[in-house]
Give the backbone structure.
Amino acid sequence: MTTTNEPLLSVQGLEKHFPVTKGLFKRQVGAVKAVDGISFDVFKGETLGLVGESGCGKSTTGRLVTRLLEPTAGKVVFEGRDITHMRQGKLRPLRRDMQMIFQDPFSSLNPRHTVGTIVGAPYRIQGVQTENGIKRAVQDILELVGLNPEHYNRYPHEFSGGQRQRIGIARTLALKPKLIIADEPVSALDVSIQAQVVNLLEDLQNELDLTYVVIAHDLSVVRHISDRVAVMYLGKIVEIADRKSLYRVPMHPYTNALLSAVPIPDPKARAKSDRIRLTGDVPSPLNPPPACRFHTRCWKAQDICKTVEPPLEELASGHQVACHFPENAPEAATKTAATTP
Amino acid sequence: MNESAFLDVKDLKIHFSTDDGVVKSVDGLSFSLERGKTLGIVGESGSGKSVTSLGILGLHRGKNAHVSGEIWLDGEDLVTASQEHVRRLRGRKMAMIFQDPLSSMHPFYTVGDQIIEAYRIHHKVSKSVARKHAIDMLGRVGIPEPKSRVDSYPHEFSGGMRQRAMIAMALSCDPELLIADEPTTALDVTVQAQILDLMRDLQREFNSALIIITHDLGVVAELSDDILVMYAGKCIEYGSAEDIFYRPEHPYTWGLLGSMPRLDREPTERLLPVKGTPPSLINVPSGCAFHPRCPYSDLTDGQSKAEVPALAPTDPGHLVRCHLSRTQRRTLWENEVKPVLETQ
Ligand SMILES: Nc1ncnc2c1ncn2[C@@H]1O[C@H](COP(=O)(O)OP(=O)(O)OP(=O)(O)O)[C@@H](O)[C@H]1O
Ligand SMILES: Nc1ncnc2c1ncn2[C@@H]1O[C@H](COP(=O)(O)OP(=O)(O)OP(=O)(O)O)[C@@H](O)[C@H]1O
Ligand code: SF4
Ligand code: SF4
Ligand SMILES: [Mg+2]
Ligand SMILES: [Mg+2]
């Protein structure tokens, strides 16, 4: 992992509230606080994993960063430039630098276009002149993602799910992006094919010096692929740390519960009694619980958790947590937290 | 296989005629299961897991499906039984939990009414008795305030609650065989953990036979006594959970284990995926269906391509379908595969 001090991407206090309207006149009756004030940096050459349960705002974050959605508040800074309110015209060259890979390899490819047309489109836009030149470029990139270059004239339906995901990745790479936001890139795929695509993403990163934000709900996949990991809960980042610290010494109770809930493929692990079991489901982002949003499910919750929102604070080097009573926290950090009220 | 097993499936074949040819979705599957035990069926998408489970429930009687073989449930062969009889057994003796509870619950009836309905088909009781039973069942699967929630509609429940309600519905007639097809795939991991705990507890309480179908090796490890690994409609390895996780002998099982990033081990630099893509079930590869993807197929003197290997015991209760000799498989596992997996 090569990092310079200047982040490639910096997200500051980002918010997205979707209005909820009612009736004929679309009167606003509330808002879904899908993303509610998150900040993080991504450095060149690294992979940031974004995990959390369904509806916590992961995809919305991805769409905000790539400017597919307009934020309600906050800033997105790419290569030192504030792109939050940049106009479409100025944004166009940047769109190439920041690409998104989607979960569904079936719906994101036009079924009426051949692989050559789909993957070649970016080259046509970039002004690669001759069809011959485009064909060569496309075949090179197909080979790079592990597809047969002979498949140039085939249609998406002739490919398996894993192969279609590769086509999607090939198209993305053709634009020579600097940052790739991959939203659940492998969750629609079978385990064996998942592993092929995960390996491919890693190889491409090494070869092309790519930077990734990988959004996923699978904690094992995220651990495998990420250098740093951010955990989201109901529109907030509750913990962010390098991979090792996050998985070895998770501090936020929610992170602990998440890790503890992953079924371990080892029959001996069944007898483990130190598991944390949360009760209830994730509350609705329409009416998130006040203060610490996790307090309705947290076994450590105290009165202060219901009244004072815990800020995201650095409790160990590079390890930020938003909790009044963190687990595994270094001595000093726990003391300050416990005496804050 | 034990003659008197509670569920005894023998040489089950389920083929579908389609315009493109015959799809051999299940092609000679045999296994047995006792009450109080859990069998996990794993395999990649399209390997025939769901077709198997629907077959046991007698739900493949459409025009294009051809079912052969035997399915003995508590001494009765369901393949030759009348459709009417199998229908009566469904719900009373056997029940199913699907991946997506919304698709198997009626949106216009309350959750309670659906449980009451299902219960009264098989039990001649009054509506109020059935309602009490429904409330009781909802409480047992952990729905808070079952007395008021019994009158909710499915869409008023969260995903986890719907899956609980579905389990309540399936269990309301105290079935002796319960088949759960990807019961937690659509759920969040913290809710999945709750549902897996619930299923384990309920099975102990009801002493039913449970078949859990999933592509998630973690989920099978949590629940199963025995595990059946499917590939292209066939069982390629069968054994206790310990056999499959600690001493697997089939190259495809090794591939499955190597594909999976694991939280309980150090992350390796690279995953070890099964190469290639899943086979066609219409033009199934000759010999061992796994041979185009198997890294060891050239160690069998051409047998892998020419002959379908038999499912043969390697140890009591542990069956493997592969032409490699037992010694070859064990040496490969110990020297080549296990060391690489362990460093994960
Ligand atoms: N266009 C929209 N209008 C209104 N609400 C929306 C919109 N898009 C997303 N939401 C809501 O915002 C919240 C966050 O959604 P998002 O898709 O970002 O979650 P996610 O973390 O990606 O979940 P998943 O893991 O299920 O993909 C959800 O409650 C969702 O219903
Ligand atoms: N009615 C049908 N007609 C023709 N083919 C069918 C029919 N039902 C299932 N199949 C085919 O049988 C094969 C096995 O399907 P099945 O649903 O059992 O897979 P599975 O192992 O459950 O996969 P998944 O993990 O994706 O659920 C698939 O190739 C499927 O397309
Ligand atoms: S702030 Fe309180 S409720 Fe929130 S996670 Fe920490 S201990 Fe739990
Ligand atoms: S029979 Fe041959 S191809 Fe099939 S698993 Fe064994 S070695 Fe591999
Ligand atoms: Mg999403
Ligand atoms: Mg299925």
Summary: The pocket of iron/sulfur cluster (ligand 4) is lined by residues B 251, 288, 290-291, 294, 296-297, 300, 304, 309, 322-324 (CB under 6 Å).
